């Protein structure tokens, strides 16, 4: 069974601070996705990373896929209250359709 | 609509009753997925449809759970003889093809009394 561990589970910071959340596994994934979910809504895809060592940037968000394709990180620069939400990582173990999700990091950015 | 639509958005029912949850995928999307999100748990994969066929039902927790898809479009997830542990948010997603990004609906919040 493939598992994804996300840390920290909860994170509360002030507007303008930087933060990093982590997604780790002992399994290799062919691709890894990051989603953000707001209360009462479904997850929204932020990015997909597929190559070991890959770095993708989306405005103030930087995503990295580990060289061994077992882990990933999400770094947010100068966090804003609008970044508040549940950040989920999800890995594809090779089926190309079946995603394994982590339990998420609940981020609160205070004004 | 442009997105994945799920109904009802909320469902409260008594233990032992049957419930049906509906998912309308994005038009033209051939693949459809059901997930369950419980408090303190991540999203758990339930079932995957390609067209009207379900090649992977491995995530269905018990034989009380079933799902079907008709016309390559709408899907229904049925839970028979509901139990309190079935309380969760049930999320549906669709994708253009089986290996494309999944787009999620806002889910059905199911509460079993």
Report on the structure:
The complex is a heterodimer of chains A (111) and B (113). Chain A is built from no helices and 11 strands. The model of chain A has no long low-confidence stretch (mean pLDDT 94). In chain A, 0% of the residues lie in helices and 53% in strands. The relative contact order of chain A is 0.33. Chain A has 111 residues and is mainly β. Chain B is an all-beta fold. The radius of gyration of chain B is 13 Å and the shape is globular. In chain B, strands 2, 4, 5, 6, 9, 10 and 11 form a 7-stranded mixed sheet that branches. The chains are: A mainly beta (111), B mainly beta (113). Chain A binds chain B through residues 4, 33, 40-45, 48, 88, 90, 95-104, and chain B through 4, 31, 33, 35, 40-45, 48, 56, 91, 93, 95, 98-99, 101-107.
The residue-averaged pLDDT of chain A reads: 94
Tell me the major beta sheet of chain B. Answer: 7 strands, mixed
Percent strand of chain B: over 45%
Strand portion of chain A, in percent?
over 45%
Structural class of chain A: mainly beta
- Global morphology of chain A: globular
Number of β-strand runs of chain B:
11
User: How many helical stretches of chain A?
Assistant: 0
Summarize the amount of helix of chain A as a percent range.
Answer: under 10%
Q: Write down the Rg of chain A.
A: 13 Å
The largest pleated sheet of chain A is described as: 6 strands, mixed
Q: Oligomer, anyone?
A: heterodimer
Distance between the termini of chain B: 32 Å
What is the end-to-end distance of chain A?
40 Å
Cα gyration radius of chain B (Å):
13 Å
Low-confidence stretches of chain B: none
Largest interface: A-B, 21 and 24 residues
SSE order of chain B, as H and E?
Answer: EEEEEEEEEEE
Helix content of chain B: under 10%
């Amino acid at each position: 069974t493939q598992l994804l561990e996300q840390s920290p589970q909860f994170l509360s910071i002030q507007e303008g601070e930087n933060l990093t959340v982590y997604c780790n596994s002992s399994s290799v994934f062919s691709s890894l996705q990051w989603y953000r979910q707001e209360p009462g809504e479904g997850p929204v895809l932020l990015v997909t990373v597929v190559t070991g060592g890959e770095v993708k940037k989306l405005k103030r968000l930087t995503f990295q896929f580990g060289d061994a394709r077992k882990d990933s990180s999400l770094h947010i620069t100068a966090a804003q209250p609008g970044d508040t939400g549940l950040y989920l990582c999800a890995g594809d173990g090779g089926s190309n359709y079946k995603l394994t999700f982590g339990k998420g990091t609940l981020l609160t950015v205070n004004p | 609509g442009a997105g994945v639509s799920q109904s009802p958005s909320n469902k409260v029912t008594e233990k032992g009753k049957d419930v049906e949850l509906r998912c309308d995928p994005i038009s033209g999307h051939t693949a459809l997925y059901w997930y369950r999100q419980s408090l303190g748990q991540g999203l758990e994969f339930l079932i995957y449809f390609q067209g009207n066929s379900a090649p992977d039902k491995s995530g269905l927790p018990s034989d009380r759970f079933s799902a079907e898809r008709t016309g390559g479009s709408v899907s229904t997830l049925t839970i028979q003889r509901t139990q309190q542990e079935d309380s969760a948010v049930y999320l549906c997603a669709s994708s253009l093809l089986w290996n494309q990004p999944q787009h999620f609906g806002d889910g059905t919040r199911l509460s079993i009394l």
